[in-house]
Amino acid sequence: MSLLLSYFDGSLNNGSGLARLFLAGFLCGIIGLERESKHKPVGFKTCVIISVASCLLTLISITSALYYSDLLANIRTDPMRLAAQIISGVGFIGAGVILHRSNQIISGLTTAAIIWSSAAIGIACGAGFYFLATTTTFLILLVIKFSNVVTRLGRRLSKHQIIDARVIIVGSETIEPLLDDLREKGYLVDNVNIMDDKKNRVEVTIRLRVKKNSGVFLLYSTLKHLEYVYSVSLSH
C-alpha cells in the first residue's frame, strides 16, 4: 500500500490526469478505428467511451484514496476499489453482445473481448502504467490483424472440417437410423439438435466432423440417397 501511494504521490495533478485520459482515448481509438473499418458493432465511439470512462474512474479511485489517507491517519481506502468494479460492469456490457444462433454458432466473443480490453487499457492509463497500456494495445491490434492467418493455418493442419447439416426426415423413428448411417460411413457426430416439424416431419440439425478428403458434396450425396430424408441443407 505504501509503495503504491508513494508512486502516485504528487503525480495526480490536473495535467497528469488529462494526459492519462487522452492516452486512454487515443490507444482505444486506434482499436476502435480498426473495428470500424471491418464494420463491427463495437467501433471507435464505443471503445473510446469505455476506455476514457474506465480511466476516469481509476483516477477518482486513486485520488480519493490518497486524499482521505492524508486527511485522517486512521482511514485506509483501497485505491483500486472502483477499478475492480469496472471489470464487473464492463463484463455485463460485453455479455450483451454475445449471440447464440440457432445453428449452434456463437458470435460476438471478439467484440466482447474488445469491450473488456478497452476497459483494461483505460484502467492501466489511469493507474499510470503507460508502457503496459501501449504494449497491450499493440498486441491486441497484432492479434486482430493476423488472426485470419492463424485460423487458416490451423484449418490446414487439421485433418477434419466442421459441417452443420440440417436434415428434415419423415418420422421421429428414423432419427436413430440417420445417426447410425452417418457413423457407419465414418462421419463423427459432435452435436445433435432435434425439432418437430409439420406433417410428421422432424428437423435434425447435426454438427459433423468430416475428413477433408470427403468434402461437402459427398456428405450431401450420402444424405440425399437415404430414403427417409426429405431435404438437406449444409453449411461449413
TrEMBL record:
It comes from Chania multitudinisentens RB-25. Its main location: membrane. Belongs to the MgtC/SapB family. Residues 21-152 form the MgtC/SapB/SrpB/YhiD N-terminal domain. GO terms for cellular component: plasma membrane. The chain crosses the membrane at residues 17-34, 46-68, 80-99, 106-124, 130-150. Pfam families: MgtC (PF02308). This is Protein MgtC. Keywords: Cell inner membrane, Cell membrane, Membrane, Transmembrane, Transmembrane helix. The keyword Heme does not apply. PANTHER family: MAGNESIUM TRANSPORTER YHID-RELATED, PROTEIN MGTC. It comes from the Bacteria.
